[in-house]
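Extended Data, panel c. Modelled sequence:
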Amino acid sequence: MKAHRRQRLIIILALVALAGVAIGLTLYSLRANMNLFYSPTQISAGEAPSGRSLRAGGVVRDDSVQRDQQTLDVTFTVTDFEEDVPVHYRGILPDLFREGQGVVIVGTLNERGWLEASEVLAKHDENYMPPEVDGALKAAEARKVMPSSGAVTGGNDERI
């Protein structure tokens, strides 16, 4: 192999290696900053990663909000009407936060199963529900409506 061809091959291999390293670092960075959405049912089933940032959503359960009078600590329960997840948040809650309203929480799941929230987002009007929360609530409702036994009772009956 001639010297100029060898030099050209080395340059091309170096560029390919640098591009591979750049792509790898970019993908690693994106993976570390990704917040996947989980419903309370998925969190209770153990599908959510512990110690990594995630988003969870549902409805604030009635009579579950407890505020510490000395600090800004708040604990409450988020539900999808199938499972509940306890949440701890330190800070000022949004003005629209209240029981019975939809919320999205950004935080990490600790080893006790509590969601340590770094951010709490409340819906902004009476008609809006975050798409992830709406989908999780509809899925939970669909699981409640579907019969657990697949038995057909009559001649022309159809299974749901």
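Residues 23 and 51 are 26 Å apart (CA to CA). This feature is highlighted in the accompanying rendering.
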